Amino acid sequence: MKQVMIVPYDSIWQHLYIGEKKRVLQKLKNISAIHHIGSTAVPGMDARATIDIAVEVKHDIEALELAELGYHLICKEVCYKVYATKDHQFHLFVYKEADEELLKRIKLRDYFRTFSSERDRYSAFKWELARIYPFDFSSYKKARDIFLTVIEVKAMNWNGSNEVQIFG
Fold it and tell me: What InterPro entries does the annotation carry (predicted)?
């Protein structure tokens, strides 16, 4: 069983994202936009140390292209696919252009970047879940997703009027 490991925020995550972004963009020509999403994209947020990257594509990416970058399919949802590197240092979420689910993820990221009290509350919640479910990622994820659904409603109703720092 895989242990649920939350670690304190590390500024190296932004640099890892930039490096992987360059690598992905060099190989894949079908990308219209690329975004750093998830907890590692939010300065000050504690997280599982996996860099989540979302790419928007005009048409599907060939699995072979991703395999050449060291990615393999780990999840296929209705509106996106998730690929991971062998060590799970990177997760690559592949969305069609302007997908509503991706827009929600970006809005949530920007909300956490803007409202540090919400960011800190979410970080503390993840630490607590990791303590309760140290070897049960499925239960950790279910509880986390319920919490995020509530925050997502706030984020989607937020008009973005507070200035937000853009990292990509």
Answer: GrpB/CoaE (IPR007344)
